[in-house]
Amino acid sequence: MDRHASAHWEGGLKDGKGTVSSESGVLDARPYNFGQRFEDEKGTNPEELVAAAHASCFSMALSMVLGEAGYTPDAVDTQAKVTIQEGDGGFEIPTVHLDVTATVPGADDAAFQKAAEGAKEGCPISKLLNAKITMSATLKNA
């Protein structure tokens, strides 16, 4: 199974501009530029897309791991924070933090934490990234 996306860039780093597209069409020539990536200009950027990919991948992985343990989550909400900073060799992404809150009927916190850790390690996007990935996980049950 292969998935495809593409990017087009014109001009220099700071004065240039580009577009990013995905095979599905969800991203269709969406603009991006230096200001959107390294400053506070509104718009998408590669790190935001990585964060979205990681959050969605992790949420599905957690659902799978919980299912294998006999639980079905009512809801899994994940936020991913991708940190980009300038290092000795240029810009790098040293950390990704996942913040997950889930409602899982019948699960206790120990089972939930074990499942969350397993999902963090097993998520294909986690395996792709060479960053330190941290996480906080909260179980919401009545």
Describe this structure in words.
With 142 residues, the chain is of the alpha+beta class. It has helices at 34-38, 46-68, 109-122, 124-128, and strands at 5-10, 17-22, 30-33, 75-87, 90-103, 132-139. Helix 2 (46-68) packs across helix 3. The longest helix has 23 residues, at 46-68. The model has no long low-confidence stretch (mean pLDDT 94).
Short recap of the structure:
The chain has 142 residues and is of the alpha+beta class.
Features of this protein?
elongated, 142 residues, single chain, 4 helices, alpha+beta
What is the β-strand count?
Answer: 6
Category by helix and strand content: alpha+beta
Q: If you compute it from the alpha carbons, what radius of gyration comes out, rounded to the nearest whole angstrom?
A: 18 Å
Order of strands, widest sheet: 1-2-3
Shape, per Cα inertia axes: elongated
Cα(first) to Cα(last) distance is 40 Å
> Count of helical segments?
4
Mean pLDDT: 94
Largest sheet: 3 strands, antiparallel
Order of helices and strands: EEEHHEEHHE
Amount of beta strand:
35-45%
Which stretches are low in confidence, meaning pLDDT under 50 for 5 or more residues running?
Answer: none
**What is the helix fraction of residues, given as a range?**
25-40%
Oligomer: single chain
